[in-house]
Amino acid sequence: MKSLENPFILTSFHGKKYFCDRDNELKTLFSHVENDRNVLLYGWRGLGKSTLIQRFFDKLENKGQYETLYIDLLHCSSIEDVIKILASVIFDKYGRGKPGISSSMNKLFFVLGASVRFDPYSDMPDLHLGPRQSGREEQSLHAMGDFLQERKKKVIIAFDEFQEIDFFEDKNVESFFRNWMQKFPDLRFVFCGNHPGKMLRMYAEKTSPLYQNAQLIPLLPIQLETYRDFILDHFESKGKSIAEEVIKMIYTWARGQTYLIQLVCNYLFAQCTQVREQDFHRVRQEILEQYLPVFASFPKMLTKGQWNLLKAIAKEEPLFNPLSSEFLIKHQLGAASTVSTALKSLQKQELIFEEEGAYFVQEVLLSRWMKNI
Ligand SMILES: Nc1ncnc2c1ncn2[C@@H]1O[C@H](COP(=O)(O)OP(=O)(O)OP(=O)(O)O)[C@@H](O)[C@H]1O
Ligand SMILES: [Mg+2]
After folding, report:
1. How far is the CA of 160 from the centre of ligand 2 (A)?
2. Residue of the CA atom closest to atom 19 of ligand 1
């Protein structure tokens, strides 16, 4: 991969050099896959789940015994969407750019009702799924399973943003996945999802494809000491410097969230040769201002009581006793019973979370902005 001007990447995986740590998680992922176990990787937004899968898949592919497929379910809302994206990923990996279409792929396309057409503008081949798709989901999935199972190498499929299947209208989606996994035991799966609470609930449901069928890997923030060394090395390698105390401030402000740490370091690296504390203050203000239009929509999505409570939690976090009279009076939140209802609602929407008795606003940037309004 190309060497980058700015080593603090904001767009997925660009090679080992720009990827910090995750050694233990990688070891665990290898051990699960090598021993034929499926995996559920879960954690809060922005911690690095998708990038970790890419790093893992890069290593697996380099080993030469594995083939990996990465499926992003973010924009899927039905099983037909899942089939479409799976078919196009299969085509991209095994069909596109290859001279001719293999007989096994022809067989697959026949069942899918798919055809390859040339885009008249780019002159590139594209996959089209015909109308035969509807009502034939089971057959389509099985045809893809057959195709993948017949590969000589072991096939690992990652379904990223797996929490999305909870929003599908057709609740049969779970049984489609479950049947598919049972029918093709040689395929290995890495499921990946946001919102730990939701993923664990899905995992525990007997109807879920994950139930007793995947090993859990919770993704937590990278340790401060490890991130510090990574940041120092990259600044030093380009003749720049940053004080350790500033790195600690960034880490605390970002609450250890990989995305936010990368974002702040990316700006600081671009703007400074010698990073001082005031540079960090300026950059974080610059970032918060950019997000203002996004934050503006939040009060409209909540009741007044919920919004006021959310703001109060941001100002106090970690907040240990949200129903104490001291907290209620200080932020003029009204009766404890009303606040208790608002608290449950914010928790259900996963706008806040509780850890060891302390409450936090889930979105770190939103929290940092609300602290100051
Ligand atoms: N180990 C790492 N070292 C350096 N940068 C990383 C690392 N992991 C992730 N990143 C960077 O952090 C950002 C967020 O990572 P990623 O998108 O993988 O998180 P995620 O947990 O999948 O987020 P989401 O929940 O929003 O899908 C990206 O810009 C990515 O490049
Ligand atoms: Mg992701």
Report:
1. 7
2. 48
CATH class, range 302-370: mainly alpha
Q: How far is the CA of 51 from the centre of ligand 1 (A)?
A: 5
Question: Counting ligands in written order, which one lies closest to the CA of residue 52?
Answer: 1
Query: What pLDDT digit, counting tens, does each position of 70-114 carry?
Result: 999 999 999 889 998 999 899 889 877 666 667 888 888 878 877
CA of 14, closest atom in ligand 1: 31
User: H/E/C letters for each residue in 311-373?
Assistant: HHHHHHCCECCCCCHHHHHHCCCCCHHHHHHHHHHHHHCCCEEEECCEEEECCHHHHHHHCCC
Prediction pTM value:
0.92
Domain topology for 224-290:
Helicase, Ruva Protein; domain 3 (1.10.8)
Give residues with Cβ within 8 angstroms of 176, minimum separation 6. 79, 82, 137, 138, 141
Q: Note the CATH number of domain 22-218.
A: 3.40.50.300
User: What residue spans define the domains of the chain?
Assistant: 22-218, 224-290, 302-370
Work out which ligand 1 atom sits closest to the CA atom of 18.
4
